[in-house]
UniProtKB/TrEMBL annotation:
Pfam families: NAD_binding_10. PANTHER family: FLAVIN REDUCTASE-RELATED (PTHR15020), UPF0659 PROTEIN YMR090W (PTHR15020:SF50). Transmembrane segments: none annotated. It comes from Rhodococcus wratislaviensis NBRC 100605. Residues 16-204 form the NAD(P)-binding domain. This is NAD(P)-binding domain-containing protein. InterPro entries: NAD(P)-bd_dom, NAD(P)-bd_dom_sf.
Length: 227
């Protein structure tokens, strides 16, 4: 935990609240006394996220308005975009979720006055798409790049973009490599991604930064403080 963080519980709203990264993040936030609000599309997931300690809010980010989402953000200290269309989705949903939902959450954060915003992106965003890339994965990278570009243009949000490498379901290591682009491709556990997001929330001075993340030798708190 960051030394400068006060003891006042914070309210953190997480889009993609039933996703694997989000579930790790909920556990971290709850354990340290913060209040996690999980935005979920499927009401069947309410019990699961509540059992982790989050307040579930059922809302479809592909259908909701910015005003609808802003209601959940009023009074929040930060918003985290950790949603994704998922590996089984097609080109259309890469745009509606990985770009559209991210833009919607940012719109809602501005409306609600929630300045701190952490967006989970991906390696490959913001870079030329290699020849021969699968068309669905290419659409995903296009969507992630567009979401980043939209966020960087927002002067009323204290945003941080986090681009993790290949995601693993292994146990957390607590050690990473975190740096401004570029960074050699690598992998990182979803649990470590969540821990980095939690640490970024403790470090407002990381606002306006785009950061690459893989597993590595540096303890997470030190890695975040260093950037």
């Amino acid at each position: 935990m960051a030394e400068h963080r006060d003891a006042t519980p914070r309210r953190i709203v997480i889009a993609g609240g039933h996703g694997k990264i989000a579930r790790h993040l909920i556990k971290i936030l709850t354990a340290r006394g913060d209040r996690a609000v999980a935005l979920i599309r499927n009401p069947d997931h309410e019990h699961e996220v509540a059992a982790l300690g989050a307040e579930p809010v059922v809302i479809d980010l592909e259908a909701a308005s910015a005003d609808d989402v802003a209601k959940t953000l009023v009074g929040a200290n930060a918003a985290v975009f950790a949603a994704g269309a998922g590996p089984g989705s097609g080109i259309a949903r890469k745009d509606t979720v990985d770009r559209g939902a991210a833009v919607l959450l940012a719109d809602a954060a501005e409306k609600a006055g929630t300045r701190r915003f952490v967006q989970v992106g991906s390696f490959g965003a913001g870079e030329p798409i290699p020849e021969g890339t699968d068309e669905v994965f290419a659409a995903y990278l296009v969507a992630k790049t567009a979401a980043e570009e939209d966020l960087r243009a927002r002067t009323h949000l204290d945003w941080t973009i986090l681009r993790p490498g290949g995601l693993l379901d292994d146990d957390p290591t607590g050690h990473v490599t975190l740096t401004a682009p570029p960074l050699e491709p690598g992998t990182v556990t979803r649990a470590d991604v969540a821990a980095v997001v939690a640490a970024l929330l403790d470090h407002p001075e990381t606002a306006k930064k785009t950061l690459m993340l893989t597993s590595g030798p540096t303890p997470i708190e030190e890695a975040v403080a260093a950037v």
